[in-house]
Design brief:
- Helix content is 17%, strand content 34%.
- It is elongated, with a radius of gyration of 28 Å.
- The longest helix has 23 residues.
- The relative contact order is 0.13.
- The chain is built from nine helices and 24 strands.
- By secondary structure, the chain is α+β, with helices and mostly antiparallel strands.
- The strands form three sheets. Strands 2, 3, 4, 5, 6, 7, 8, 9, 10, 11 and 12 form an eleven-stranded antiparallel beta sheet that branches.
């Protein structure tokens, strides 16, 4: 062997040994699967973990999973966190509202959200939308009115945990009732829908020639001279009287709408219940008028987990009502990202993407999941694995029969059972 050949062999052997050592040092492992390694656990130079600033410590503390992401997070992903907590409030005498639309939250294509407060007697003026309106009461009591396309009217009072649904184009109004008024969450079935751009009765009348108004209503022009020339949107009105009297005064000879426009989601029987929490569902199967929005109200006790799952029929828009949650979303790539959620925050998961929600606080985690769909649909990872031939699963995951036998069956939704 020549010196040149010997040198080539030596260099090749050394290079292979170095590569093997490097691969061993950075080997993918359970809970640390990627090369190059991710997460603080893999930072040999601890100085690289410091963050001298500038920084807002109060804000950063709200997002521990962003500051110190799990080693299982990998690659980038569109931001799936937003919040009403930093959304601008539009305040008027009688209440306020704030919204998060796709303009603010790019990923949210299917749903836009509104958080609204009305004082006792405060009125969200008579209006309608080109989109469907789904809402859940958060606090207090609200009086809602609507009229369907057959001229059938409905006047109802709703309380915390109740829903209402107005199909696209049907006129309605909202008013704070009782002694404390009302707060509620509205979801529209379009990410671009805005609460600040609705079809208002005051706007229409102010921009219709007076003689046309007079002919339409069969009254003298002079009798309409004091109609508002600026829209009201939210204004302070008189506190509403007894419900029965309002229903009689508004009744149509055609009777009430064929389908009720309200539903008690909080009062419904859970479809899944374990020692770690429960899930209540409202969709077109039990809230029949809600043809374009399905929803789940989820309660998870401290330490509980909304199990790994995905939704095959629609994107999921989440609103966190109470507690602290952590969610990781998984996509092809692979891509995975973890985010933290508090009361008033919004999450969004694209159709078909795997995720879980973990209660990381010391109180119940309560959240609502909203879908642009006529029915709620979900596939749970444990359900799939326990209803596939066991040998297939054991060979795929390299686990024993004893381990597989311990997996939860038949989709508990909230674990541990």
């Amino acid at each position: 062997m020549t010196d040149l050949s010997r040198r080539k062999v030596m260099i090749g052997t050394a290079t292979a040994a170095f590569a093997a050592a490097a691969a061993s040092a950075h080997a993918a492992s359970f809970g640390n699967p990627d090369r190059p390694p991710e997460g603080a656990i893999n930072a040999r130079n601890r100085q690289g973990l410091t963050d001298p600033g500038p920084r807002d410590d109060m804000l950063a503390r709200q997002f521990p999973s962003a500051q110190d992401a799990p080693a299982t997070d990998v690659n980038g992903m569109p931001q799936f966190w937003s919040s009403f907590n930093n959304a601008h409030k539009r305040i008027q005498n009688g209440g306020w509202a704030r919204e998060v639309t796709q303009e603010d939250f790019a990923i949210s294509k299917d749903i836009s959200g509104v958080n609204m407060r009305l004082s006792a007697g405060g009125i969200r003026e008579m209006h309608w939308h080109q989109q469907a309106e789904w809402a859940i009461m958060l606090d207090g009591k609200c009086r809602i009115t609507t009229l369907d396309e057959e001229g059938r009217s409905s006047v109802q009072d709703v309380k915390a945990g109740d829903l209402w649904y107005f199909p696209p184009g049907l006129p309605h109004s909202l008013q704070g009732a009782g002694t404390t008024g009302a707060e509620f969450l509205i979801a529209f079935d379009s990410g671009m829908a805005s609460e600040f751009n609705t079809l208002l009765v005051t706007d229409w009348l102010a921009h219709t020639p007076p003689e046309v108004l007079a002919a339409n209503f069969g009254v003298p022009v002079e009798s309409l001279k004091d109609i508002p020339v600026d829209n009201l949107w939210i204004f302070q009105g008189k506190e509403p009287g007894p419900l029965a009297a309002a229903q009689r005064a508004s009744a149509s000879k055609k009777g009430p709408p064929a389908l009720p426009v309200t539903f008690s989601l909080a009062g419904s029987t859970p479809v899944r219940k374990t020692r770690s929490g429960y899930v209540q569902i409202a969709d077109s199967r039990n809230f029949k008028i809600s043809q374009n929005v399905a929803a789940a109200l989820v309660t998870v006790v401290p330490g509980g987990l909304r199990e790994l799952h995905w939704h095959p029929n629609a994107d999921e828009w989440q609103y966190y009502i109470k507690g602290k949650g952590r969610m990781t979303v998984f996509d092809t790539g692979p891509k995975a990202m973890t985010a933290d959620f508090n009361a008033g925050d919004i999450g969004y998961v694209k159709k078909g993407l795997g995720h879980y929600v973990q209660n990381v606080g010391n109180t119940d985690l309560i959240m609502v999941e909203v879908f642009k769909a006529d029915h709620f649909a979900e596939v749970a990872l444990s359900d799939w694995l326990t209803h596939t031939p066991p040998e297939m699963v054991m060979q795929t995951l390299n686990i024993s029969a004893e381990t597989l036998a311990q997996f939860p069956r038949d989709r508990p939704d909230i674990v541990p059972e």
